[in-house]
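Reopening closed ticket. The problem is back. First fold of the pair:
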Amino acid sequence: MQHVTMYSTNWCPFCLRAEQLLARKGVAQIDKINIEELPEARAQMMSLTGRRTVPQIFIGSHHVGGFDDLAQLERAGELDALLGSTPAQT
């Protein structure tokens, strides 16, 4: 499974939703970078993504975008391949 990194804040509901979706996909560990606790991380995030909002999600070295982008990948059936996993059996 690919490594997941997410720029976030403590209060962001979309960050929580992204974590929940990734957990359902079997992602056990997310490297969370809190841009409120690490002010220099906000500048880093903006430099890497060109975006100011959280979450900003990376799967491996691929910048996914925010929660809406992550959810769109799931709806399109592309998230499992990006994560390097097989779809969960229901």
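Second fold of the pair, where the issue appears:
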Amino acid sequence: MADFATGGTQQQPKGWNAFKNHVMEYKIDVALWATRIANLIFTIGYFVPLFWNPYNSYYKALMANAATSALRLHQRLHPVSLTREFFFQLMNEDSCHYLFYSMIFLYVPPVTLVLLPVFLFSLLHAASYSLQLLDTLGQNSWWGARLAISLVEFQSRNILRLISFTEIFLMPFTVVLILLGRAGLFTPFMYYQFLVMRYRSRRNPYTRNMFLELRALLESTANKPSTPAFLRSFIMSVVAFACRLAPEMPPQ
């Protein structure tokens, strides 16, 4: 009984050896963390071009996001099989959505807003895994980093809502890019397919919920007595058009 009690309360060793063992045991998770950190660095390098060309930093950030998405798909859907079921499972993965997202904008001149969703996703996931890495070093290690991570996690819901709003706002913005000569004619059609996948996401309902919130906000604005008739008509036309484009949700 004494041996059992001792074994039950024994703690895992902490320190650099534990950190090295964790890295060796969870290579893909650590690689995902590294690509997300790279995304953060390149995005900051785009906004604050002190060390790199901002143009190159923009595309490196998208490529880092593509690498993250590809690694995550390998982790969740390994091994690959050429079947219809595997294809539908692939299309349902959030990582596949953002791999497609990176591919869309890799062939478009830099658009600052495009980096916001990938930066925020990298920030959330990198912060979460950084906490696990710090735990291998000890509970009291790097308290300043732990405080910063806790602030990010505290705001995680607001960050996810901002990501979903940006995803939606980028849809009409891609049309504006065509008018400005900064995107091809197929860019809005490809982005619409991305937005459809985000709307249908089973693991992340924030985009779908944001559509509902925006619809409620617009309808509330249109129904106010102070809203002019022409503006009310325009708003309701926009809502009706968006509802016609909304995909049906597949059965669970």
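Update: turned out to be a display glitch only; the data is intact. The chain has a mean pLDDT of 84. The two ends are 48 Å apart (CA to CA). Please close again.
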